[in-house]
Amino acid sequence: EPLRLAAAQFEQLLEDKPDSPDIVAAYAESLGRQSKYFFIAGDRPQSLSVQKKATDLLTVLVSEHESVIDYQSKLAMAWKKLAELHNGVGDINLVLKMLEQSGQVQSQIVAHDPGNSLNVIVLADIFLSHSDALWGSKLYEQALEKVEQAIPLLDQLLVTSPENVLGAENRHFAAVKRAECLTKLGRFEASLDEWTIALRLAPPMMKESTQVGTATTSILAGQFVEGTRLIDEVLAGHDSDHPVQNQLLARCSAAFALAAGQAWSQSDLPDNEATGEFYALRAIELLGQFQHRTGGKGSFIHESADLDCLRDRADFKALLAAARNMD
After folding, report:
1. Cα gap 267→253, rounded to integer Å
2. Taking CA 221 as the corner, what is the angle to CA 212 and CA 270, rounded to the nearest 5 degrees?
3. If we measure between CA atoms, which residue out of 171, 142, 147, 145 comes closest to residue 159?
4. Distance CA 27, CA 53 (A)
5. Cα–Cα distance between 190 and 228 in angstroms, integer?
6. Whole-model pTM above 0.90?
7. Cα gap 119→117, rounded to integer Å
8. Among positive and negative, which fits the CA dihedral 246, 251, 255, 258?
């Protein structure tokens, strides 16, 4: 309600001073905050409508005041926010166009003041958001290209400002995204190199997640002994008083399922059937823990392609049956 009142006051100010660019900019910023709260409240359509109004206002403002960097910065972020609101529910081509516009505006800002670290981080973040949207549409090669636009910006930033925490965190996220794209494209050696960078840069709270990503790529590359060792290392760091998070537990179980499939597919591997069975049983054990914690809710066990090699097993079918009973 305070934001609605603020918007009404800005509208009154604009009636009194229709040619004031600063009032227009402040009004658009207020609308952006209002859009955020509509989204939090679960009203995406209204959030979209308000954010679009803010973006339209800023687009006109920048066209009339092209030299004002502050207005350009607000427009770049407005396009990014609008794209994020559309992502997953709207036309992906529209989302990509909005992110392209956001990147173009922010690139002009960085070109004007390349030494401004915050502007560089914002531009890198836009490229990473663009990569996320492409990833969601399974356009992995294009997603990789966008990540690779962000990485040189962040690398240069960290050369000049090695203590920049936000830059280091974004470089870690960029490394993870690049590694994931390379994995999807089957370029496992390059992906493992990037996972090494991600592990080195990972903040403490992201170390385990990054290690599981590294392990999964190792398994897909045929290095399932090393991959499962990394998974066991993550699991060994937890006990009943400090359990592994549900999402990470699901990823660990999927990694063991992938290892089982990899072992079974290598007919020239000594004892490949027994090795695959060992990994399959580990996967089933972890899936049972995951299901117990989540009460059978969610789609992971039912839909994850990583578990496909287990789906004909009696113990896996028993898990599915137990999940239905929990419902």
Report:
1. 23
2. 110
3. 171
4. 10
5. 20
6. no
7. 5
8. positive
Asked if residue 276 lies in contact with residue 261, where contact means CB atoms within 8 angstroms, the answer is yes
In angstroms, rounded to a whole number, what is the distance separating the alpha carbons of residues 85 and 83? Answer: 5
Strand partners, 242: 239
At 83, the amino acid letter reads A
Longest dimension (CA), the chain: 83
DSSP 144-188: HHHHHHHHHHHHHHHHH-TT-HHHHHHHHHHHHHHHHHHHHTT-H
Distances in whole angstroms, Cα of residue 299 to Cα of each of 89, 248, 320? 19, 15, 11
Asked if residue 232 lies in contact with residue 272, where contact means CB atoms within 8 angstroms, the answer is no
CA distance 252 to 26: 47
Q: State whether residue 190 is helix, strand or coil.
A: helix
Provide the residue type at 63 as one letter.
Answer: S
Contact criterion met (CB below 8 Å) for 135 and 182: no
Cα-to-chain-centroid distance, residue 70: 27
As a whole number of angstroms, the distance between CA 143 and CA 180 comes to 10
Chunked in runs of 10, what are the mean pLDDT values of the chain (327 residues)? 74 80 89 90 92 94 92 94 85 92 95 92 96 94 97 95 93 97 97 96 94 97 94 90 88 96 89 94 94 84 93 93 76
Q: Which structure tokens are listed for 197?
A: 């960078």
